[in-house]
Design brief:
This protein is mostly helical and 117 residues long. The chain has helices spanning 2-11, 17-38, 43-67, 73-81, 84-93, 95-107. The radius of gyration is 22 Å and the shape is flat. Residues 42-66 are annotated as: Disordered.
Length: 117
């Protein structure tokens, strides 16, 4: 790692050395995490992480799309301060959403049947 740091310091002479070192550490940690998750015994953890990331992205897209159709200033303020967890609780409180969500999960094990929320 020392060779890499010295090489990067000479290549990027105007960059902060501490920033270069932090970037190298982050890259190393990323490679280590990817290697650990590629091991067969970590397959369930890898799948759980992947599913969680997909769900967070879907919720974020839903929040973004719904926040674009607000009409009043009060609605706009509500959507700007709303978190994904609050939206999830509101959706789960709606019995129609809950029933349809379970039907989508049954139709396709990923929770969607040909469309993206």
């Amino acid at each position: 790692m020392t060779y890499l740091l010295e090489e990067l310091k000479t290549t990027f002479a105007d960059a902060d050395p501490e920033c270069i070192q932090a970037c190298c550490k982050t890259q190393f940690e990323t490679f280590r995490r990817k290697y650990n998750l590629s091991q067969p015994e970590k397959s369930q953890l890898r799948d759980a992480i992947k599913t969680g990331a997909k769900n967070r992205q879907r919720k974020r897209r839903l929040l973004d799309s719904r926040s674009k159709v607000v009409q009043t200033d009060a609605e706009r303020e509500l959507w700007q301060t709303a978190t994904v967890e609050e939206l999830q609780r509101r959706l789960e409180a709606d019995i129609c959403y809950t029933i349809l969500h379970h039907q989508r999960v049954k139709a396709d094990g990923n929770g969607h049947d040909g469309y993206i929320l």
